[in-house]
Specification:
single chain, mainly alpha, 0% strand
Length: 104
């Protein structure tokens, strides 16, 4: 594996902590940062593998919901004239008969 050099910017307090932890681990800063970065990436990869089935199930559920008709829960539901008038009133729709009053 080729060793490459690159610069990293960070607050001085973080740099100081890294130096202290590297020294405590008997590593130079570059080795300490490489080990820490690999450990973080491995942890993120593990989390991704753990969550992948849940993310897939969520995506499938969202796709199924998008395919379903928006008002499919009302299939077969019949409202009385009074119920429909109440729905129209709540939604701010004009009355179904145009005038709002029914002849007796």
């Amino acid at each position: 594996m080729a060793i490459v050099r690159f610069s990293v910017s960070m607050p001085s307090e973080v740099r100081d902590r890294i130096k202290a932890h590297a020294a405590a681990a008997n590593l130079d800063v570059s080795a300490f940062l490489a080990v820490a970065a690999v450990a973080q990436m491995d942890a993120q990869d593990r989390v991704g593998r753990i969550l992948a089935p849940f993310e897939e199930a969520r995506a499938e559920a969202e796709a199924a919901a998008a395919d379903a008709a928006a008002d499919s829960w009302t299939d077969g539901m019949v409202l009385t004239a009074e119920e429909q008038a109440e729905v129209n009133r709540i939604l701010g729709r004009p009355p179904a008969d145009g005038g709002g009053a029914t002849a007796a």
